[in-house]
Amino acid sequence: MQLIDGKAIADQVKQEIAAEVAEIVAKGGKQPHLAVIIVGHDGGSETYVASKVKSCQQVGFKSTHLAFEDTITEVELLAEVEKLNNNPDVDGFIVQLPLPKHINEEKVIEAIDYRKDVDGFHPINVGRTSIGLPSFVSATPAGIMELIKRYKIETSGKHCVVIGRSNIVGKPISGLMIQKGYPGDATVTVCHSRTKNLQEICLQADIIIAAIGVPNFVKGSMVKDGAVVIDVGTTRVPSTETKSGFRLCGDVDFKEVSPKCSYITPVPGGVGPMTIVSLLKNTLLAGKKEIFK
Ligand code: GUN
Predict the structure, then answer these.
(1) Which pTM value belongs to this model?
(2) Domain 28-113 has CATH 3.20.20.140
(3) Residue 199 designated active-site
């Protein structure tokens, strides 16, 4: 069993991005600039956004952190989005989700200029990704593809079972895994909460991508010997062993499953660290105007 070290790969990719930014700036080019909007005080979101801003600094990006109270109206938030759309210094920006209930997330996402949508959530980017056109691919699926590539994991003709059908992971990763080329060319089955013979399907998988959001959902009895297991789960569960009082728990029962795997991602330290790196990569592409002129 080989552990897929997402932290190490993320550090490596960050160094590559930093080197590229240094080169751009040395040649008199523009420092890539990411803006992040956060609304309210959700603990998870605040931690995540702080980490995104810190990562920008590490690779030499400019970053802008815009924090609003959850009393902001939808109209006011849409006006903030429009300001960023029209700010030529901002190459890309994201609106951290979830948003308070009185704000329609779809409306906000659709208001983002797709050429600055480094989260890859805008329907134009989602659609372009699904038909294989250049696009901003959302962070988690892009991070998974990068891990598969860097570990040279074979995907052609492999049976990839995706557990979960969310818009931000399950749907895009299944679309990417069936695409022509590498990583891709897989036979993909997407399972979800209504799937009947889940264990039987999982037992046929060469690659399992678990993104269902249920801690320890994938058991040893669901995994065949030699499978590759990618765990996207990051549920916060109470813990007496950490300062924060919680720890992250994956969708895979690591103790049971890991001895059977050829490769497996741990939680934390697997897919998680790659998501911010994907956002940085998209911001670099946005800065270089590489996807949309
Ligand atoms: N909330 C959880 N993950 C994400 C993400 O990747 N982007 C945004 N905008 N919000 C999130």
Answers:
(1) 0.95
(2) no
(3) no
97 CA distance to ligand 1 middle (Å): 5
Q: Are 174 and 126 in contact (CB under 8 A)?
A: no
Strand partners, 64: 35
pLDDT tens for each residue of 132-162: 999 999 999 999 999 999 999 999 999 999 9
| Residue 52 bears catalytic tag | yes
pLDDT digits (tens, 9 = 90+) for 245-269: 999 999 999 999 999 999 999 999 9
User: Which contacts qualify for 185-190: CB closer than 8 Å, 24 or more apart?
Assistant: 185/155, 185/156, 185/157, 186/155, 186/156, 186/157, 186/158, 186/159, 186/160, 187/157, 187/158, 187/159, 187/160, 188/160, 188/161, 188/162, 189/159, 189/160, 189/161, 189/162, 190/161, 190/162, 190/165
Structural domain boundaries in the chain: 28-113, 139-272
CB of residue 95 inside a 6 A radius of ligand 1: yes
Q: Spot the catalytic one: 14, 52, 158, 281.
A: 52
**Fold designation for 139-272:** Rossmann fold (3.40.50)
As a whole-number percent, the residues of the chain with pLDDT over 70 amount to: 100
How far is ligand 1, taken at its centre, from the CA of residue 108, in Å? 13
